[in-house]
Structures are given as C-alpha cells and as structure tokens.
Amino acid sequence: MKKYLFVFCFVLPLLALSQKQEWIHPGEIWPDQDGNHIQAHGGGITKVGKTYYWYGEERRQGLDSNKRYVSCYASRDLINWKFKGDVLQLSDPENLGRRWVCERPKVFYNKKTKKYVMYLHLDNSTYKLARVAVCTSDKPDGNFTYVKSFRPLGHESRDIGQFIDDDGTPYLIFEDRPFGFRIATLTEDYLGVDKEVCLIPMHMEGGAVVHYGGLYYAIGSALTGWDPNPNKYATAVSLAGPWSEFKDIAPPETKTYGSQSTLMLKIDGRKKTTVVFMADIWKPRTQWDSRYLWMPIEIGDGKLWLPQPRPWKVDVKSGEVKFK
Ligand code: DGJ
C-alpha cells in the first residue's frame, strides 16, 4: 500500500512535471504532452478565453490515405500542447480523385452563431480546382463537419491565411494565382466570403497579416513549392492599401531559415505586445517530420525582422519574451 502511495504522491507528479517544457526550440522536434511530435502543419491559432487552439494538417504516419485530417492542440502557454484529436476527418468531398489536397486549415470563431468555422484549401492532385472548403463545429475541439466548397468571390484560391483585426473583424487571405494576394471579409455567419478589401498584386503563398503600432504588416513567401525562399513583407496604414514595396524579413540567403510563413500571432500582454512569426519547415518526403519555426519578431515603425532562430519563451500574460 505504501509503495502505491509513494508512486501516486511522488513518482507520477514528477513524471508529469518532467514532460513540461519551458522553451520553444525552433526547428526541432516539438513534443506534445503525450511525447509525440506535434502534427499541425500549415496551421493557424484560435484563442478561446485563455486557451490557444492550434489547428493544422495532420500528417502522422499510418493514416488512411483516402482521407485528409486536421488536428487540434490546446495550450495556455503556447509551449506545452495537449493533443485534442483529429477534429476533421474528411473523405474526398467533391470527387477529386487520387492525391486530392486539403491544406492550411484556419478556424474562426463566430460569437453570434457560436460556431467554429474552419476554412481549408481544397484541391485536386494538379492544384487546378483552387477552392476553399468550409467546415463547422459547435466546439473548438470538434468534430468538424463539411459544409461546402467554392472559389472565394469567384477567384482561384490556393494557400489561405487568416487575420482577425483588433475590432474582431475576420479576414480571409487567399492566393489567387493569376492576380496576387487577396484579403476579403467574411459574411455574417462566416460561411462565405463577402467583400474584397484589397488585392496586392504579388504572387505570394503562406499569406499572413498583423496589425501593430498603427500599421498593417503583410507577409508571404514566393512560389517555390515545398522549398523555402526569402519571405517578404509590406506595410500599409489601411488594410485596403496602398501597400509599400515588399522587403526581406530575414537575410535572403537563409531562405527564411528554411521556413515558410503560415501566421503572425499577436500576444497583447499587460506589459508588452509580442508578435510571433509562425512558419513551417517542410520535409516533403517525410511530411510527418516537418518542423515549425516560431520566433518573436522585431516589429515597429514600418520595419519587420525575423531574428536568427534560438530557443525562447513568452509569458502570455505579460507578453514578455525571454531567450535561453
Ligand atoms: C506551397 C504551399 O504553401 C503549401 O501549402 C503546399 O501547397 C505546397 N506549395 C505544395 O507544393
């Protein structure tokens, strides 16, 4: 009996503690609370109360190759993530055939309808369909069910991104190959795309936007498939533009330290506002081993810079960042 008490009182809590991580290590294996490498590629973050939900492409080995999966992880500190399951398990919804594509999930919470609305890039194997798919759930951790797919405002749409402005307005960012990078509002129920706010005539994937210090910053990558390239940014006083020229966010020879943008996460802390660059380090032949490059960026007065990746952590309450 004493032996069991000892295990319960000392060994188990110690084990739990030892799994707790203190630092974010960009580019390294990122274990979830079960010790498995996080599978949330091309992802997005939705904050509900104090909890951050990280949605992304589930690419672990051994999945049913006919289906596509979106995973969900929950965290209160952005460092330790609990796997909440594959919240979308989709069978080819539009008869797209072999090697159909479902990428870059982004979830918006609609306070009026109390629905979680997920947007995805839906495509066939040749990436010619170029649509978004919309799925909904009553809870952040699923299950999500498929609603429909369409081309936003009739335009081609491949990589998508999400942006929530400070007043809560949600925007969909989408790459329209013939024309460029579009930003558009959603309908009241979030199930559709309503109005275009701007078209930035740049051919960019991995689109992301953040509002900081009275300026909008848009970033994206060049079109080089799974290979990294120098990601760039532009600024504007209004989301509608005009937008400045695009400039490098990091030394171009590093190709964004081998990564591709997916989101810019703003943490409005009590003491500091921190913006985190979230990106994927893709491993196209071993996608389950693709990594994440999350780093706080230097931002302000029209400048944005991604410092050399190194271990760091953020206190989500104060917004302050520390480096190891
Ligand atoms: C780049 C995109 O950003 C990815 O999401 C994926 O679609 C690859 N291209 C496919 O080559």
List keywords for this structure.
324 residues, mainly beta, Tachylectin-2, Chain A, four-stranded antiparallel beta sheet, 2 helices, 23 strands, 47% strand, binds (2R,3S,4R,5S)-2-(hydroxymethyl)piperidine-3,4,5-triol, Glyco_hydro_43
Note down, in words, how this protein is organized:
- With 324 residues, the protein is mainly beta.
- It has one domain: Glycosyl hydrolase domain, family 43 (Tachylectin-2, Chain A).
- 7% of the residues lie in helices and 47% in strands.
- The chain has two helices and 23 strands.
- It has helices at residues 2-19, 255-258; strands spanning 41-48, 51-57, 67-75, 82-91, 101-110, 115-123, 131-137, 145-150, 160-164, 170-176, 180-186, 193-200, 205-212, 215-221, 232-236, 247-248, 260-268, 273-281, 291-296, 298-300, 303-305, 312-314, 321-323.
- The protein has a four-stranded antiparallel β-sheet, with no helix packed on it. Strands 5-6-7-8 form a four-stranded antiparallel β-sheet, with no helix packed on it. It has a four-stranded antiparallel β-sheet with strand order 9-10-11-12, with no helix packed on it.
- A hairpin with a 2-residue loop joins strand 20 and strand 21 (303-305).
- The model has no long low-confidence stretch (mean pLDDT 95).
- (2R,3S,4R,5S)-2-(hydroxymethyl)piperidine-3,4,5-triol is lined by residues 42, 103-104, 159, 205-206, 225-226, 260.
- (2R,3S,4R,5S)-2-(hydroxymethyl)piperidine-3,4,5-triol binds at residues 42, 103-104, 159, 205-206, 225-226, 260.
- This is Family 43 glycosylhydrolase.
- Keywords: Glycosidase, Hydrolase.
